[in-house]
């Protein structure tokens, strides 16, 4: 038992305790939509930064604890670093805007649940035992079930919460069925003990079925076809700040577990083919459905379905390069989406959902945010010199020549399809003109005139997106080291 190995978890755990005490001691009031976010828990962003520093300091450490169920290695610490950075940005996004659609008496609880979800994702990154993985997954999920409906006077938020819980319950049930089948076939739940065991449908059909069912719980988090139906509705119904979190951090937990399963268990060719087919369908369906969307958050919801398919390229490659590419793309996806959600939240200070028409005239009203939006959209397409281009290049290169060349072709075609709806965002922001440049359509609320800090932080996020595209080596080398360490 070495506390230095648990530094990121301890930092975030202390923040959780402080937030719990704050929820009990803060004076409650039913007054909605007032008050800043910092005093009610927005300081969590600084605790997340401290957790990120602790994660970076432990990147070179390794160890096995808690009876072999919890492993510290390059992969776990890399993803804990990403989770901490993502939590810092997502929390700052919420506190900066003051979570306008959240009642003041629920603000401290809101940040508590965000931190608890991130803590569960950190546990997930180090879990190497199937039951521990399921428990960590549920810790991260139950927190989000509680905050999705927290949107004042919005019945669609309640609908989104119900759908999220119901789909999550089904996914968890299937994962537990898969766990039972793996235990029945191989009599252990420890991943290191499962290394080298047969997971092919020919030699061990029960284990192969169990592995696919167990992975369903993480396909759900990743919004991979056919477990994607919740994503557009939940993004649309949740508040902008909550959608920014759900669209990014839970994906990291899904990727780290899927990478660990794929690298250690070496799924047979039949299971790899299932992943490839799911990936191809996810890319195609996600992109085609996104073409018809006018609501920006629904568009980003279907976009996440497509990006889940791209990540499958790294998993089916079955090599350390493929796992490194999938891990790096998880980082790229995190930064791209947090950047575009920063623009969404700053453009709609009232918290209402934006549609494409609301972007009209943005280049005049908020030129810096329009530029940040353009950078994020170019990255989501995969255009150079952004991080999206580099991430997709690594994925396509890793999968080519590994028996899934057809999947690489499907990914390239889908990237071309996605150009239309991503660049449509830029077209509305730069070429469309609004008849009412100071108001949202219908005069419901004032459009944001961004502050200097909103512009500055947006530029920082855009700079990170560009830097990861131009100079990917430092972060990709960390992912590559993690991928090589995983290979048995």
Keywords:
two-stranded antiparallel ribbon; 21 helices; 488 residues; mainly alpha
Word description of this protein:
The protein has 488 residues and is mostly helical. The protein is built from 21 helices and 2 strands. It has a two-stranded antiparallel sheet. A hairpin with a 4-residue loop joins strand 1 and strand 2. Helix 4 packs antiparallel against helix 11 and helix 15 packs antiparallel against helix 20. It starts with 6 loop residues before the first helix and ends with a helix. About 4% of the residues have low confidence.
Number of helices: 21
Rg computed from alpha carbons, rounded to a whole number of angstroms: 21 Å
Largest sheet: 2 strands, antiparallel
Low-confidence stretches: 29-36, 436-446
* Shape call: globular
Q: Span from first to last CA?
A: 24 Å
Average per-residue pLDDT, rounded, comes to 84
H/E element string?
Answer: HHHEEHHHHHHHHHHHHHHHHHH
Category from helices, strands and their pairing: mainly alpha
- Helix proportion of residues, in percent? over 70%
Q: How many strand elements?
A: 2
How much strand? under 5%
- Order of strands in the sheet with most strands: 1-2
């Amino acid at each position: 038992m070495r506390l230095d190995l648990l530094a990121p978890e301890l930092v975030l755990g202390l923040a959780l305790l402080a937030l719990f005490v704050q929820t009990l001691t803060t004076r409650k009031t039913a007054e909605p939509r007032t008050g800043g976010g910092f005093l009610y828990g927005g300081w969590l962003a600084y605790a997340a930064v401290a957790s990120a520093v602790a994660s970076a300091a432990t990147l070179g450490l390794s160890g096995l604890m808690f009876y072999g169920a919890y492993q510290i290695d390059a992969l776990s610490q890399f993803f804990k670093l990403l989770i901490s950075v993502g939590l810092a940005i997502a929390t700052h996004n919420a506190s900066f805007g003051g979570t306008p659609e959240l009642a003041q008496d629920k603000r401290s609880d809101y940040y508590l649940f965000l931190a608890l979800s991130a803590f569960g994702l950190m546990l997930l990154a180090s879990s190497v035992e199937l039951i521990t993985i399921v428990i960590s997954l549920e810790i991260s999920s139950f927190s989000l079930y509680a905050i999705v409906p927290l949107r004042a006077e919005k019945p669609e938020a309640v609908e989104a919460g119900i759908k999220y819980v119901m789909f999550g319950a089904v996914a968890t049930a299937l994962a537990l069925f898969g766990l039972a089948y793996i235990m029945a076939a191989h009599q252990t739940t420890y991943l290191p003990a499962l290394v080298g065991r047969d997971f092919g449908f020919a030699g061990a059909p029960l284990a192969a079925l169990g592995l696919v069912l167990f992975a369903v719980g993480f396909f759900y988090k990743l919004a991979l076809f056919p477990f994607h139906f919740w994503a557009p509705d939940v993004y649309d119904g949740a508040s902008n700040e909550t959608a920014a979190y759900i669209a990014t951090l839970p994906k990291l937990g899904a990727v780290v577990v899927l990478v660990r399963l794929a690298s250690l268990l070496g799924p047979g060719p039949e299971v790899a083919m299932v992943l490839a087919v799911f990936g191809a369908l996810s890319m195609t369906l996600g992109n085609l459905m996104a073409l018809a969307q006018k609501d920006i958050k629904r568009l980003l919801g279907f976009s996440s379905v497509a990006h889940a398919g791209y990540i499958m390229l790294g998993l089916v490659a079955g090599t350390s390069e493929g796992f490194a590419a999938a891990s790096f793309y998880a980082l790229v996806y995190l930064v791209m989406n947090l950047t575009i959600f920063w623009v969404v939240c700053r453009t709609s200070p009232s918290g209402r959902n934006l549609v494409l028409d609301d972007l009209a005239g943005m280049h005049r009203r908020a030129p810096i945010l329009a530029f940040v939006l353009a950078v994020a959209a170019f990255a989501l397409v995969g255009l150079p010199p952004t991080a999206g281009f580099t991430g997709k290049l690594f994925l396509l290169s890793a999968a080519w020549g590994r028996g899934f060349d057809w999947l690489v072709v499907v990914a390239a075609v889908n990237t071309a399809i996605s150009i239309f709806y991503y660049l449509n965002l830029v077209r509305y922001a730069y070429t469309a003109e609004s008849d009412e440049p100071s108001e949202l359509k219908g005069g419901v609320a004032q459009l944001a005139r961004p502050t200097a800090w909103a512009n500055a932080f947006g530029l920082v996020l855009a700079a990170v997106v560009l830097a990861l595209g131009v100079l990917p080596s430092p972060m990709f080398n960390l992912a590559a080291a993690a991928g090589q360490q995983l290979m048995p």
